[in-house]
Design brief:
With 462 residues, this protein is an all-alpha fold. It folds into 2 domains: 229 residues, no CATH class; 175 residues, Hypothetical protein af1432 (Orthogonal Bundle). It contains 20 helices and no strands. Helix 6 runs antiparallel to helix 8, helix 12 runs antiparallel to helix 13 and helix 12 packs across helix 20. The longest helix is centred in the middle third of the chain and has 38 residues. The chain is elongated. The two termini are 55 Å apart. 42% of the residues are buried. It comes from Streptomyces atroolivaceus.
Amino acid sequence: MSGTSAAARVYILCAVVCAALGAVPALSPEAGTPWGTLGLLAALYSACELPGRFRVFGGSVPITAGSFFPLLLAAAFLLPPSAAVLVAVPGALVSHVDGPPVTARRVWRAAQLALTVGAASWAYALSGGPATLGGGPEGAVPALPHALLPACAAALVFGLVLAALDGGIIATAERVAVRHAWRGLPARSVGPHLVHALAGLMMAVLWRSTYGPLSALVVLLPMYISCWVFAQYHRRHAAHRATIRALVQAVDIKDGYTRGHSERVGRASELIARELGMEESRTEALRFAGILHDVGKLGVPTRVLRKDGPLTPEERRVIELHPEYGHEIVRGIGFLDEARAAILHHHERLDGSGYPYGLTGDRIPEFARVVAVADAFDAMTSTRSYRRGRPVPAAVEELRRCAGSQFDPRMVRALARALDRHGWSAAANTVTSDEDPAGLPTQRADVRAPAAGTPDRPGRHR
């Protein structure tokens, strides 16, 4: 367990000892432990964990213990507590772990799940659960309405014990303050574990029925497939976020101004989208649009972006190509959807004086009209090395003044309402670079600059 802190080692050792003591009664010949049921459940749990260890099917199999909690709860319903303690141990010891120390992580997971399943089994037994499950040689019918209460009690204990043990390892291994280690853990676990309890109860009822253990796979297999689909969804979204992050980092390297600005424009765009009542998929796409609105700067020569002093007409035309460069860069990224139009048109103005195509009014895509407002707002409220950012009320008032000519009044109103509701952190809006985004002045109050590259103060350009 090298690499594990002394406090974490002691904590893990205590968990292992407690789990071992909980399992001791099952080893007694007088206990009547159903070894066949225990062994089959342990083998099923191990079979569920093994694909992640060996990355079969290209590593696309979801590997999280939470995917198989219904199986562990079924074990808590079917076995006495001392036997239920043992079910998760083999699977945890062969499971996939995210990083070193591998041994410590596996031993900890085995002890944690053993204690959690044992506690859930005790709660189930004390609340009269075994009597409601039915089955057995007499073929008793399960009292399903009455079986729900013990199952929910077991799930509640399962979630609380799991959260308590998680908080302890966070506090000892990661040296997080005790008052923060458990924050939010129990609340986040209650709902999912109640759903797990229902699936586990269905599995236990089928296991005890005349159809036998094989019928329990009717629950386990669809559950595993649904977890796989859910994991694929999250993996795809993780890939999307990685793509966005890579593009933003590339722009940050080329133009220091965008560091922080892109994320804030994405946040402001999201605030506007939510205020407008957009559905979640469009809200996410609009946030991506805000983050990537200046990605076209990758196509602009660095000497032009960082030039001190006024731009020549030719350099100004090069700067004004950055929306088209950005559109070309993201053209093949399918998940961006409407965001591509925002990247291309976020410098258009309602009166037709913008670029690259001089679109007017509603001919400007909705996403572009949102990003234009978010971009201008962050530019005005961000502090530069040569001037302080404006207060939020002053920036909103300036947006209102320019609404109808440069900005869509509906988007300006939506941002104003969102800021009243959620506020805006001025501390997060400090920019150390001197560059301003194209299309926005920095020295004077008017945000309606005629074109990108107009000098905003001696020696600088936008």
